[in-house]
Amino acid sequence: MSAATRAARAAAAVAVLGSLPYWLPPAVVRLRVRIFARVNGEEGVPVPGPGVGTAAFERLYAHPAANGRSRGAALSDLFWYWLAPGPEVHQEHLEPGPRYEAVARTTRRVLTTVRRQEWERIVRRRAHDVLEPLTGGGTRVVRLRDLAMPLWAAAYHEVVFREPCPDDVRALIVGNADDVVSALKCTGVRHMDRRDRLTCYLLGRIRAGDVPFELPEELTDHERACYLQGTFFNTAVVQMSEATAHVLLAIATRPEVRERLRREPADSAYLDHVIEETLRYYPLFGVAHRITTDAITIDSGDPHATTPVTKLPAGSVLLFDYARYHRTGVPDADRFDPDRWARPRQPDLHHVPFGVAANRPCPARGIAPMTLRTAVEEVLKRFDPVSSARHDRSMPNRGPCLLVPRESSTKLQGTAVRLAAMRVRDRWEDVTRSLAQLAYGSWMVADARGKRLCGTYFDAVAPGVTTPAPATAGHDAAARCPVTGEGGR
């Protein structure tokens, strides 16, 4: 082999290696999608999609027969696997019926009993606890989701128990919530010991009479602990941490947005517009699935559709794609434009960040925007967020960011080298992370299919019964936690 040939091969190897961050992660994502579809099987009606157009999205979502949640869908086994213990009493996965109504009523009562002013006070105080140790020490490098999670863990503990959260309990909640979201993003596997420790803590508080509101009578003590864990210390903490990270990263990666927020007062409407646009551009929910409990005939609403009327039999799995729906209707939907919310709302602007009110909407839809704004304000009072990291809806990188002290605006000019290093590091982390996601995700999907947590649970329910009866003296196997096996009072 000649020296020229060796040099050419070496140059080709270097080129392939150097280009890995640009082609390998997208290729692995495509492979993961194919593996997931093969393991789970082909099921589901995409909405919007070939059978159901964009114009029918909200009407179908609100249809009273589109209210099944877990029973009868292979996808449910995967979600139950990620949300265990207690997915059978998780508000988002309960079937319609008395247990769901009791749980949803309790959640609304917990969230609305606290007045808006008190919510703001709690969030500002907990933000101070998290941010104060970072002040006075120059520019900080953080992961925004990791920064936000202790804030929301402590805030929701205070809302639930009406008392400040001890540091060790906050660490317990954060460890559990991080475990949940890492498994959902396939960047790590589940660690049941973390979840079980939080379940035991909550069970102890319930049995000690420390919960200052009535919990659903239909649930056993263990199910009540799982309900609190799933609703407030899994979903609420994870989703609010994700939302906070998305808003701050959207600001950090867009200098024009960041500079305008610096120029305008903190109480201006522009921050609200940034939050709305972030929730449109990076929706917290990817795909929500619902199972039809009766046949549905839906008009597409599009006179030019090839199939103007779609008939969906009972048991159809509807896959409502929030991200796709939010990107339809307006010609510049791929542009991040907070000012679109300052103009009169366009009729074709599709935006359902907290679901559709007629069908299992997010119970925090009235609280989340206000508390999210409060948390973001507290960060912006102290720091300018600056980042060169990749920002997508899934955000598996947890939002790498520089927090530049607000009083040192000139220091923004000295961040170029650090931002360049962050960009390179983020791209190469994406290579190893995508391979880890492929391995973890494939294993968890296969393991979830083998365990069939949801299917096994409903197999124990008599045919025709939508929701299992509550446990009696701890002997009803169907009401036990499908992972730990505990039930009863």
Shape: globular
In whole angstroms, the N-to-C terminal distance is 77 Å
Total count of strands? 8
Residue fraction in strands: 5-15%
Strands of the largest sheet, in order across it? 1-6-3
Low-pLDDT runs of 5+ residues are 464-485
Major sheet details: 3 strands, mixed
Could you walk me through the main structural features you see in this protein, from its secondary elements to its overall organization?
It contains 16 helices and 8 strands. The protein has a 3-stranded mixed sheet with strand order 1-6-3. Strands 2-8-7 form a 3-stranded antiparallel sheet, sandwiched between helices. A two-stranded antiparallel sheet has the order 4-5. It is globular. 52% of the residues lie in helices and 7% in strands. Mean pLDDT is 86; it is low at 464-485. α4 crosses α15, α7 packs antiparallel against α10 (221-252) and α8 (167-184) packs across α9.
Features:
single chain; 489 residues; mainly alpha; three-stranded mixed β-sheet; three-stranded antiparallel β-sheet; 16 helices; 8 strands
Short description:
This protein has 489 residues and is mostly helical. It contains 16 helices and 8 strands.
Helix and strand arrangement:
Layout: H1 3-18, H2 20-40, E1 45-47, H3 57-61, H4 74-83, H5 98-113, H6 116-131, E2 140-143, H7 144-161, H8 167-184, H9 192-207, H10 221-252, H11 255-263, H12 269-281, E3 287-291, E4 296-299, E5 309-312, E6 317-321, H13 322-326, H14 368-382, E7 383-386, E8 400-405, H15 416-451, H16 453-459
Parallel strand pairs: 1-6
Antiparallel strand pairs: 2-8, 3-6, 4-5, 7-8
